[in-house]
Task: structure prediction
Amino acid sequence: MARLAGTARLFRLLSDKNRLRLLKLIEHEQSFCAELALVVGLSYSTVCRHLKFMTAAGLIHKIKSRYRIYYTLAPKTSLGGKLARMACAGLEDDKRIIKDKRVFEKDKYSARR
Result:
């Protein structure tokens, strides 16, 4: 029963378009919360909350550096990692995703200072 509930929770998390945008950016390159918030146009606290939920569900992992916490997709071997990659796979041609990637590349260096 717990496995069924956990899998259902993963699919609920993946049903949100903003979380999918965040996942796709994280798949593109490991990122931190402020950088992601800048790109997707959501508040810092909203993005942090989305990242917290996705981390708890095992879709993404935290990588702590000296001053920041970076996020990356979970390993390919985990259920969350597999689902995250499958969800990202069909989004390459989405206009919003393409725009997000352009903004990410443009603003990446200003956000990382």
Notes: The chain has one domain: 2-101.
